[in-house]
Amino acid sequence: METHSDMMKIYSEKTQTWKYVKKDKNYTKQLSAIEETLSRFGLLKNEIRVYLYLARSGEKKASEIAEAIALHRTETYRILRDLEKKGIVFSVFAKPLKFTAVPLDKAIDLLVEAQKMKIKLLEKEKENLVELWLSIPQTKLEKTAKELFQMLQGEQQVVLKAEELLGKTEKELQLFIPAEYLSQLYYSDFTDKLRKKLEEINIILLVENSPKSVFFIEQMQWPKHKYKLVNAQKLPFFMIADKKELLIAFQENDAEEDKRKDRTAAIWTNYSAFIWTLQMLFLKLMETQVH
Questions:
Q1: 270 and 169 in a common domain
Q2: What is the domain extent for residue 178?
Q3: Strand, coil or helix: what is 227?
Q4: Angle at the Cα of 61 (from 36 to 97), degrees rounded to 5?
Q5: Which of 27, 91, 196, 248 is 20 to 30 A away from residue 178, measured at CA?
Q6: Could you tell me if 28 and 155 lie in one domain?
């Protein structure tokens, strides 16, 4: 029987979801997960290989690193200097010159702080960019109401759009949440933000009837009179804001090497006919009885 210590929770960039993976005694899966995470901090593939080799092997000469991971010595030197600039590798004063790596936890702290600094700089640039844009003569555009739609890809983009709709809702928000999406929204903290809005707007929550749904509803501490379990399978997640905007999310399945990989995708629209159709579906679901 597998225990919690046999499993590890990792974020998959390909599927853009969190998942539990059984640990590999040969450490292949663990290293693969670490490599994938480091790549999201902006490190290139060979930079990751050099850093991880040093982190596991201790002090090494550039020639030893190059030979161990099959890299050209010139490229290895360049990578080592780039990693030094990032603060996660040190040169050791010795003859011949050696290099050593910062421990992984410290390296991640440094990479995270670097990303935060980039974001702060971008935020500071926002006002200047907007000011520059407004200084350019603008073409006068007719402001007419149009029915629009927008395609979204990836769990993060879908959650951001859901949060945007939540923030814009003035009166009523209707949500149908399948069990799988409820777990995604719970781990993304969207459900916390949803709960904070309970006293401001009327939130009608329909949840697919399943043990997983019941578990997450209890974890959310959602008021019993504010949700309903419904018998509905294989329906997408959707939310309707003030009967004016709709977000509908679904899973795209890709067959790859006999393995199924799910990607989150969504459509946002203010198209009235589409919204009306989902509104009717929502009302029908509310009428269903759980047995």
A1: yes
A2: 149-287
A3: strand
A4: 125
A5: 196
A6: no
pLDDT (tens digit, 0 to 9) for every residue of the chain, 291 residues total?
Answer: 344 445 545 555 555 554 445 555 556 777 887 888 888 888 999 999 999 999 999 999 999 999 999 999 999 999 999 999 999 999 988 788 899 999 999 999 998 898 888 888 888 888 888 888 888 887 776 777 788 989 998 888 889 999 999 999 999 999 999 988 888 888 888 999 999 999 899 999 999 999 989 998 998 889 888 899 998 888 999 999 999 999 999 876 554 444 444 578 899 999 999 999 999 999 999 888 665
Domain assignment present for residue 181? The answer is yes
Residues 6+ apart with CB under 8 A from 160: none
**Domain check: are 89 and 218 in the same one?**
no
Q: Pairing mode, if any, of strands 227-230 and 17-22?
A: unpaired
d(CA 236, CA 270): 18
Q: Is residue 113 part of a domain?
A: no
Q: Whole-prediction pTM value?
A: 0.63
| Residue 273 belongs to domain with CATH number | 3.30.870.10
Q: What is the dihedral of CA 46, 49, 52, 56, to 10 degrees?
A: -140
> Residue 62 is part of a domain; what is its CATH number?
1.10.10.10
Going from the C-alpha of 109 to that of each of 31, 32, 52, the distances in angstroms are 18, 20, 16
Question: Phi, psi (5° rounding) for residue 165?
Answer: -65, -40
**Does residue 127 lie in a domain region?**
no
Residues 157 and 88 in one domain: no
